[in-house]
Every structure is written in structure tokens, then in C-alpha cells.
Amino acid sequence: MKIKNSVSFNVDHSRLNRGVYLSKIDIMNDVYTITLDLRLRVPYKEKIISNKELHTFEHCFATAVRDITESIENVAVSYFGPMGCQTGYYIVFNTTESDENKYFDIFYNILKKACEYVKNMTEVPAKNELQCGNCYSLGDIDDAKNSAEELYKLVDEMDNQKAFHKYSFID
Ligand SMILES: [Zn+2]
């Protein structure tokens, strides 16, 4: 399997559906940096994600995914956050795993567990002035569970198709 590297501006956003896309693989020395596009809304066709939901899910999912990857030896999450266009999130992993064929299983399992983790959360982590730059824009845990639910459906689709979702590129 050859994974096509891409940058977001080459993606045809008029033909972009909800999905979990492998956006980019960067390699430096022995470290592979994998960027996943967690696209929860169809651009221009569906309502964008509210600021409140984006921020709340950021806190919850970042906590979940860091916790989960702590026990995985060769994978670390380096960043998770909302897209400026408010149609989804980016998650960036570092790994020493060089076999691209293994990426689907590795990241499918992490995403699935992280969604389940958020669905079982009872409060939003770091919702205070000391740990967040604007904690008053955070919602409650149900705001995060909405994104978790939407992502979970896409993770289920990944399981059915045994692959990441596929981008259409601008010709
Ligand atoms: Zn915050």
C-alpha cells in the first residue's frame, strides 16, 4: 500500500465527506509524524461545529488520547486540536513505526478507544483559569460527547471498510 502524501490545500473540499483521512506523513530521522484529518462535517453542506463544542472536545479528546497512547510504546500524540474552518479536528502522532501498512490498525484502535473514553467521561478536564486560556468558552461534558459520537460513527465506517477514508484531490 502506498499512501499518498498531501497537504490540505490540495484536497478538493467540494468533494470532501465526513471521514478519518490520513492527511500527511512527515519523516525526520527515524521518527514518522502522522497527521490525521478527523472531518466531522461536510464543508459548505453541513453546519460547522460550534466554538463551544470544538473547545470542549479538544479538552476531552486530548486527555483521552494522551492517556491511551501512554501505554503504547512506539506511539505518542504530539497535538490534537480543532481546524480553523470548524469542520473537524487534526490529530498528530509521532511514531517509530515505519511500516505504513500498520498505521490503519494502530490509529483505528487509538481513535476507537479515545471515543469510548470520552463517552465515559463525567466532567471536562482542565476547565479552570490555571490550565486553560479561556475556560469560560468551554461547554459541559455533553458538548464533547456529541463530537465523540460523530467520530465514533466514522471509526465504525473505518472498521467496515478496513481503511482510512479517501480524499479527492484538486486536479
Ligand atoms: Zn481550553
Descriptive key words:
3 helices, 4 strands, Gyrase A, domain 2, 171 residues
* Number of self-contained structural domains: 1
CATH architecture: 2-Layer Sandwich
CATH fold group:
Gyrase A, domain 2
The SSE string, one letter per element, is: EEHEEHH
Q: Characterize the overall form.
A: globular
Fraction of residues in helix: 25-40%
- Alpha-beta content class: alpha+beta
How many distinct helices? 3
Side by side, the strands of the main sheet go: 1-2-4-3
Description:
This protein is α+β, with helices and mostly antiparallel strands. It has one domain: S-ribosylhomocysteinase (LuxS) (Gyrase A, domain 2), CATH 3.30.1360.80. Helices cover 33% and strands 20% of the residues. It contains three helices and four strands; from the N terminus they run E-E-H-E-E-H-H. The protein has helices at 51-69, 103-119, 141-161; strands spanning 19-28, 31-39, 75-82, 88-95. The protein has a four-stranded antiparallel beta sheet with strand order 1-2-4-3, with helices on one face. Helix 1 (51-69) crosses helix 3 (141-161) and helix 2 runs antiparallel to helix 3 (141-161). The longest helix is centred in the last third of the chain and has 21 residues, at 141-161. The chain starts with 18 loop residues before the first strand and ends in a 10-residue tail after the last helix. The mean pLDDT is 94.
